[in-house]
Amino acid sequence: MNATTAVRGGRDSRAATIAMACVGVFVAYLPVTTVSVSLPTIQRSLGASTADLSWVTDAFVLPMAALILTAGVVGDVHGRRKVFQAGLAFCAIGAAIALSADGLDSVEVLWTGQAFAGIGAAALLPATLGLISHAVPDPRERSKYVSLWTASLMGALAVGPMISGVILENAAWRWIFLAPIPASLLTMAAASRYVADSRAAGARRLDWPGQITAAIAITALVYAVIEGGGGSFTETRVLLALTLSALSLAGFIITELRSDSPMLDLKLFRSAAFSATALVAMISFLGLIGFIFVLSLYLGQVQQLGTLDAGYRMLMFTLPAMAVGPVFAQIMHKVSARILITTGLLMATGSLLSLTTIDADTSFTALAWRLIILGIGFGAVFAPMTATAINSVPHQLAGMAAAGSNAFRQVGAALGPALMSALLTTKVSDALPGHLSDAGLSASARDQVTGAVDSGGFGAVHAVDLGADTPRMLHAFSQAFLDGLHLCLTISAAVMLVAAVVAVVLLRRPRPSAPAPSAPARRQEEPALNG
């Protein structure tokens, strides 16, 4: 096969390829919010601790962060359609495994299913953008289809809570994993007929030393944060994990500097704009995904909402982000990315700070306007951030730049739940005895409640029966949880503010990339838009 395969069927095939790519990224991101709003139900069903719940999220995100760069290289070398179909297969397998976790009463099985789905998502993200890049070789025309891709991603985040809500109102939580199975299988079959395969020009090859050291560094760091937050950061296993992460990171840097075919060319970081977008992606998604994690627990544990009601509230964030994203993508040539990204991050910061005033009785309206501002803020960040990462480096490195930016984003998404879980668990554990004492509960009752929370997580408090004292106990727990929630929101806001400062300081109008090749040659030399 040539560097790229001729597009079969002309514009009809191009339209089918773009449609399949949008479906693929939709399937890839569907588990993010589908699972997030179901965490309180999962916790009660499986008796999972808060640390266990953070692993439910991170078991999905970690493979995305660790494997996305390698998946992009595999697609460049062996064909993006093959990687696209493999990603869909992994998503279907992961969903099927997770579907059995409830029947087996095993959170470990759920982790396994999430990990397989995460591997599938790691393959789908670069493959889908790579297919669009090949189908639409003109960069200006391509930008509107990348906006459709982004809208599909945000659409998955938007409908996920509603899918979970409808299912959990009528069936067991395991059925939230049913939809990705037929969606993946049908898209796989359609891709065989309608999607043209493509490969990147050049002689790239897999960078196994880089892949291994990167995966170890990311996984060890997230493990240390989760386990340290659930116990102590001075435990031997936590210190060993942190040491392993640092050594693996050093090994990754040395490997990439010496490799003649690096997974992530460190020369990219000579561009201040690329460095800025990578840092902004990691920092902002740490705050965002961490916030979604604690918000889902607040809606379930404190407000005692059903999943559908929680889903309506999540829509107040995801729908505005999906709606305004394409608008901001269209005005990027008129307003600098620096202004758009900084403004969006400052809006997100303000929204998160305003959320620190919510309590157990906060109404839908009072919560909704804050989440709408957060959604608009992130809608202003997402498309300019991706476009800047691509446009800030030479043409031949555009694909790797997009993949690198996406990888940094997923690292932040993995660290977010880990960090917020640690902060929330520590703060609630510290505050709960005082609130129980203020509620007038006896020492034995206080010990019973704190013991239940320590051994069974936050969900266990609702199984504690103190008779007439139960309402006071639940109120005390809600107050302790709110203390932890407000701390997490404050940290998330601070994280967003740091990202805004990074954008202001480092983002400059990028220098133009190398001139695009002539139309006939471009089809052969188009880099993979992996990320």
UniProtKB/TrEMBL annotation:
Which PROSITE patterns does the UniProt entry name for this protein?
MFS (PS50850)
Disordered: region residues: 512-531
Major place of localization? membrane
- Stretches that traverse the bilayer: 18-39, 59-77, 84-101, 113-133, 145-167, 173-196, 208-226, 238-255, 276-298, 310-328, 335-355, 367-390, 484-507
Q: Does the keyword RNA-binding apply?
A: no
> Which SUPFAM superfamilies would you find in this protein's record?
MFS general substrate transporter (SSF103473)
Cellular compartments annotated: Cell membrane
Q: Which UniProt keywords apply?
A: Antibiotic resistance, Membrane, Transmembrane, Transmembrane helix, Transport
In terms of PANTHER family, this protein maps to:
MAJOR FACILITATOR SUPERFAMILY MULTIDRUG TRANSPORTER MFSC
Name of this chain's protein: MFS transporter
Organism equals Streptomyces noboritoensis
